[in-house]
Amino acid sequence: MKGDFFILNPAAGHGRAGRAWNSLSEAALRLAPGSCCAATEYPGHASVLAREAVLAGAARLIAVGGDGTFSEMLEGVMAAPGHLRREVALGTIPAGSGCDLARHLGYPTGREGVLDLLARGRPRALDVGLAEFSDFNGGRRRRHFINIAAFGLAGDVAHHVKASGKFLGGTVSYALSSAWALLGAKAKAVRLKADGLNLFGRYYLGVLANTSSMGGGMLIAPGAADDDGFMDLVLVPDMSRLSLLRAFPGLYGGTHLNFPGVTLTRVRRLEAEADEKVYLNLDGEADGMLPAAFETLPGAVKVLAPSGRATAAH
């Protein structure tokens, strides 16, 4: 296999991914000889398909779905041998309930825009995050993330969304779940060590951002550089409930960083512990809890970038 390998999650976006693929599949498959598509059949299947495609020599892997589909695909790519992984470019056709990666990368929308990206896009290096954390049974797990790793309110929101679903779409579902979480929010004592610096405190929210947005459009780290070997650690400390409610809307425009007490620190590695249960949010998914350790893997993968934004691979 030397062409493009499309991984379709037909359930993404309540079927929107399947409809999007039907509208452009014929043209997309013609762009590179040997291209093909496989549909996922169960949770985690995208990881299996991605690893097999890398081993088979695929030139590009394109997730057709949302951030969850891309995240699964990434996990399979990262499980492949490094010399093969670095030869593959990853991309996404944004058609899920959450498409923060495509938003960050400046991907076009609409059929013609997607086809132009596939035809003219060029690969560039992108950092990847690695998380080691506690699962819900007391064991330890490792997984990669491309957008964000977060704890506190973001973890609570992810768990609520998982339980209630995304029937109103990603942006609205996350906004409503965030409002629900704010009503019962409580700052939690978290022991943080960022590149060896102790940042112990009580926090409502902590986000380690590789890209700029989360939760279907919250601009959590507007200046995040995805290829500099660092991640942006955004911390929202303990404050009055009224102050928290005032700060929250700023997440959608990035102005929360101007709010008193909210900090942003660029880090390579973060360790986090707590004596009470603190849930994690990894690329929008409810996946584990503290204690956890996170690190940046510089230039670990290549992504398909719109023409004009591509840079030399690291």
How would the blueprint of this fold be written?
Blueprint: E1 4-8, H1 16-30, E2 36-39, H2 45-55, E3 60-65, H3 67-78, H4 82-85, E4 89-94, H5 100-105, H6 111-120, E5 122-134, E6 140-145, E7 148-152, H7 153-164, H8 170-183, E8 188-194, E9 197-198, E10 201-209, E11 231-237, H9 241-247, E12 263-267, E13 269-273, E14 279-282, E15 285-305
Parallel strand pairs: 1-2, 1-3, 3-4, 4-15
Antiparallel strand pairs: 5-6, 5-15, 7-10, 7-14, 8-9, 8-10, 8-13, 10-11, 11-12, 13-15, 14-15
Helix pairs in contact: 2-3, 7-8
Distance between the termini: 25 Å
CATH T-level fold name of the largest domain: Tumour Suppressor Smad4
Query: What would CATH call the architecture of the largest domain?
Result: Sandwich
Quote the beta fraction: 25-35%
Tertiary shape: globular
Number of strands: 15
User: What is the residue-mean pLDDT, rounded to a whole number?
Assistant: 90
Largest beta sheet: strand ordering: 7-10-8-13-15-14
Largest β sheet strand count, sense and barrel closure: 6 strands, antiparallel, barrel
SSE pattern, N- to C-terminal? EHEHEHHEHHEEEHHEEEEHEEEE
How many domains? The number is 2
Structural class: alpha+beta
CATH class of the largest domain: Mainly Beta
Report Rg. Answer: 19 Å
Helix content: 25-40%
Number of helices: 9
* Spans where pLDDT lies below 50 across 5 or more residues: 310-314
